[in-house]
């Protein structure tokens, strides 16, 4: 049992790292979280992973929180508490703005998934520039990732979530905790099929982000 | 890594549980669901029961026979099970019974944001509240021992942020159920409630058992009291008297203490000067530890989610001790200044602002207040039916039948129920008006009829919900011959909570030795005169049948049958083949407006159907007026 007492040694806050993930059901947001959690475990970093369990359907808002470095930790991240936000969808990114720490990294994948009412022209959808302005306004470092830069594997675009995971390890604070090569190896060996396309996706994300800096 | 739900059942296995029963409900479903996926030895029995009350009674029978039993449910499930649970608590038993309840502060999954601790108080049941996934694994084992040693059912309460969170836990090997002899104890004074003497004696025994549980909890040291040294740096440094702070935290809130103390330290808190009482066993109230803390501190901060149960207890003890200091919490106006609200979850922000409030530290107001305006710009994403969901066809048919009868949707009451069927409340359907509790749609409709509603009254319910508590309502309707139409939407699974088996699930998916209960035979057996079965993917026929039902007198039941598309797709099935014919499509958007199917999007020249999502139900083709969607139904 973990006993919370005020006499535990206070470790430097820099060893703690909180990640807030958002996107739409079906984008593989929770898989990103799962992979980071697994990578942290392998690196002997204490981790808490808290995905939202909605209905078994696509198209709904999805979020997850990862808290790295603390043995005793509540699963929720406070507003202005996330060192890193990974947003897989433009409009959903807005829901994570509250949680980014000033100076934190905000990875925004520029995919647009319009809800039905938007498609029918009955409801508004935010402009990308509007979203970026909000993210910047929260004091975050914007790391925008253009979906067009996703490479093809055998004629089809590689999985977006692995592309984004690669990008998240390409220059945010996360690569100070997790070795990108170790995460890449985890991605390669995670599924029996698709090792090639997943590796390609990861490397492409990583390079895209590094080159943009 | 395991979830809190998984920790509960793994802990129960470690404790040698023999019988586990429950009913699915977010956020608790992952517990029994995990157990059912495991390869367990035959001496154990695990089941999804018809409802929580049934589950509790199944588990109780096992506990009364001297075995170890676990019962799982979400907070709303306790409302259902409680009729029996309180009675069981009054009786007591020889074996052990642990009731796992998952509360949902912040209501991530819907239903009332109720605090199940109130149930523990009313039935004098001990309640343990782990602060983490790892602690859940440990404490559920403690709960079994506590239950057995006191002869009383014990609650283990988690909240969503533990039950659905994943964390690394060192899990030990399961312990096989003990080879215990079955005990059949004949004692009508203990196991019946017939007579005043019996009942008052049981009440007296119940109170004594809770007291005994309190003693054991103290012996085990479950509630951890840490008293700061009397002479702290803080006091010696300061010439003025600094308040001596004591923090009382319960359940998940304890997990945020370390983080909160670190942050508060940046604003002048001396963490070594803080005394802490971590309450793990929230009931019975740990009065002794609270009194010790009150005697040691002059300011006490109470951190607990939802209702101020602990805080009230602290106020009572403070009064008895003549405590002169401050008690900071919800009753102290803490909501306004420190976010100590009866609504929603607690996190590090409540810890830090609570400390700030208690010690008058200069914690900035906006320390945890991010840019809220961003979220208001986000596109709304109302939850809707999956592509291929058979409920879509039923809502469309209800709406179309009303139109054919020249009735306005705003004039026709369609009561709703729990589960995926409630999605009919949302666009594009706007069919369903309300939702109370499992099975309520059926009886609620009868009240609308008696109230004098002149238009047809319709009740809608899913298959699992109908079995759960809808049947008594239908019996009532048949007995009193109420003029209403009940539409049972039978997709064969308890879908919304993650595809659990229910009594109506097809035979091949039932557990070995279990049998399917056919809703059709049940309804006929009740003597319903007008009974129809429809296929919701046959739009015109379904509409015509519902239309006819609405014009008949008395009780009408329409059974709308088609398997949940997610489950069928997992087995590689499709309902048919659907293709867009771009030449005919004029982008009128009728298919999207009527079906709201997430597989359909707007392209440049025509609508597009995502083949990866499409199940081939063909409902879009059946509403297209321009033959722009070609559809071939799968041969039955």
Describe the structure.
The complex is a heterodimer of chains A (213) and B (636). Chain A has 213 residues and is an alpha/beta fold. In chain A, 32% of the residues lie in helices and 22% in strands. In chain A, β7 and β8 form a beta hairpin. In chain A, α1 packs across α6 and α6 packs antiparallel against α7 (195-211). The termini of chain A are far apart. The relative contact order of chain A is 0.15. Chain B folds into four domains: 2-220, Rossmann fold (3-Layer(aba) Sandwich), CATH 3.40.50; 224-359, Rossmann fold, CATH 3.40.50; 390-569, Thiamin diphosphate (ThDP)-binding fold, Pyr/PP domains (Rossmann fold), CATH 3.40.50.970; 574-633, 2-Layer Sandwich (Alpha-Beta Plaits), CATH 3.30.70.20. Helices cover 39% and strands 16% of the residues of chain B. Chain B contains 24 helices and 23 strands. Chain B has a seven-stranded mixed β-sheet, with helices on both faces. In chain B, α17 (390-404) packs across α21. Chain B is globular and about 85 Å long. Chain B starts with a strand and ends with a strand. Chains A and B meet through α1, β2, α3 and α4 of A and α6, β8, α11 and α16 of B.
């Amino acid at each position: 049992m973990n006993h919370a007492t005020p006499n535990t040694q206070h470790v430097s806050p820099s060893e703690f790292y909180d990640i807030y993930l958002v996107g739409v059901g079906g984008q593989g947001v929770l898989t990103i979280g799962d992979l980071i959690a697994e990578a942290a475990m392998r690196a002997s970093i204490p981790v808490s992973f808290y995905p939202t369990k909605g209905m078994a359907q696509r198209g709904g808002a999805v979020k997850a929180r990862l808290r790295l470095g603390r043995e005793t930790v509540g699963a929720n991240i406070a507003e202005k508490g996330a060192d890193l936000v990974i947003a897989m969808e433009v409009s959903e990114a807005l829901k994570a703005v509250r949680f980014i720490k000033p100076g934190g990294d905000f990875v925004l994948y520029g995919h647009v998934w319009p809800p039905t009412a938007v498609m029918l022209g009955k409801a508004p959808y935010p402009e990308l520039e509007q979203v970026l302005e909000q993210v910047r306004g929260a004091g975050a470092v914007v790391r925008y990732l253009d979906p067009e830069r996703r490479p093809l594997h055998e004629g089809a675009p590689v999985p977006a979530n692995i592309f984004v995971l690669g990008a998240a390890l390409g220059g945010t604070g996360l690569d100070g905790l997790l070795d990108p090569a170790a995460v890449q190896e985890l991605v390669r060996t995670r599924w029996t099929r698709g090792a090639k396309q997943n590796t390609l996706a990861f490397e492409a994300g990583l390079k895209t982000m590094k080159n943009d800096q | 890594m395991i979830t809190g739900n998984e920790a509960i059942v793994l802990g129960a296995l470690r404790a040698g549980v023999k019988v586990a029963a429950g009913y699915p409900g977010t956020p608790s479903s992952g517990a029994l669901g995990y157990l059912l996926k495991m390869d367990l030895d035959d001496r154990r029995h695990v089941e999804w029961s018809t409802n929580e009350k049934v589950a509790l009674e199944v588990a109780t029978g096992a506990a009364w026979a001297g075995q170890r039993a676990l019962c799982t449910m979400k907070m709303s499930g306790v409302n259902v099970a409680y009729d029996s649970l309180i009675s069981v608590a009054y009786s007591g038993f020889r074996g052990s019974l642990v009731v796992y309840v998952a509360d949902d502060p912040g209501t991530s999954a819907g239903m009332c944001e109720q605090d199940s601790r109130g149930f523990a108080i009313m039935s004098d049941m001990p309640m343990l509240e782990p602060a983490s996934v790892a602690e859940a694994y440990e404490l559920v084992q403690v709960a079994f021992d506590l239950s057995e040693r006191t002869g009383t059912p014990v609650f283990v309460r988690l909240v969503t942020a533990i039950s659905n969170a994943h964390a690394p836990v060192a899990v030990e090997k399961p312990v096989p159920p003990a080879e215990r002899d079955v005990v059949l104890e004949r004692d009508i004074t203990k196991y019946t409630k017939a007579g005043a003497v019996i009942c008052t004696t049981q009440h007296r025994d119940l109170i004594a058992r809770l007291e005994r549980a309190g003693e054991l909890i103290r012996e085990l040291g479950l509630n951890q009291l840490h008293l700061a040294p009397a002479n702290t740096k803080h006091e010696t440094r300061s010439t003025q008297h600094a308040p001596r702070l004591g923090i009382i935290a319960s359940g998940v809130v304890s997990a945020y203490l370390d983080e909160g103390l670190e942050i508060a330290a940046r604003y002048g808190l001396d963490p070594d000067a803080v005394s802490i009482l971590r309450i793990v066993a929230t009931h019975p109230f740990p009065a002794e530890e609270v009194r010790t803390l009150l005697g040691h501190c002059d300011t006490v901060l109470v951190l607990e989610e939802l209702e101020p149960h602990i805080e009230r207890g602290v106020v009572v003890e403070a009064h008895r001790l003549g405590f002169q200091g401050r008690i900071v919490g919800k009753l102290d106006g803490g909501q306004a200044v420190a976010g100590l609200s009866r609504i929603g979850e607690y996190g590090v922000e409540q810890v830090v602002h609570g400390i700030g409030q208690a010690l008058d530290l200069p914690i900035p107001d906006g320390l945890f207040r991010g840019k809220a305006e961003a979220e208001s710009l986000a596109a709304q994403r109302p939850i809707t039916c999956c592509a291929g969901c058979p409920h879509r066809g039923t809502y469309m048919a209800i709406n179309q039948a009303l139109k054919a009868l020249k009735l306005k949707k705003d004039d026709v009451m369609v009561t709703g129920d729990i589960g995926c069927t409630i999605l009919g409340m949302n666009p594009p359907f706007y069919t369903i008006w309300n939702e109370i509790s499992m099975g309520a749609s059926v009886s609620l409709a009868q009240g609308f009829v008696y109230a004098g509603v002149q238009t047809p009254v319709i009740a809608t319910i899913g298959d699992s919900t109908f079995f759960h508590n809808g049947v008594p309502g239908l019996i009532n309707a048949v007995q009193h011959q109420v003029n209403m139409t009940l539409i049972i939407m039978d997709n064969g699974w308890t879908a919304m909570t993650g595809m659990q088996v229910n009594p109506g699930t097809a035979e091949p998916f039932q557990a070995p030795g279990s049998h399917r209960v056919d809703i059709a035979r049940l309804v006929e057996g009740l003597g319903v005169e007008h009974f129809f079965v429809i296929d919701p993917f046959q739009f015109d026929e379904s509409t015509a049948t519902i239309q006819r039902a609405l014009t008949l007198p008395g009780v009408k039941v329409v059974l709308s049958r088609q398997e949940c598309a997610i489950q069928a797709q997992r087995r590689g099935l499709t309902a048919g083949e659907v293709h867009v014919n771009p030449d005919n499509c004029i982008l009128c958007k009728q298919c999207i407006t009527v079906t709201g199917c997430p597989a359909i999007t707007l392209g440049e020249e025509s609508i597009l159907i995502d083949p990866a999502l499409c199940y081939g139900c063909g409902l879009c083709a059946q509403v297209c007026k321009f033959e722009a969607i070609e559809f071939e139904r799968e041969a039955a």
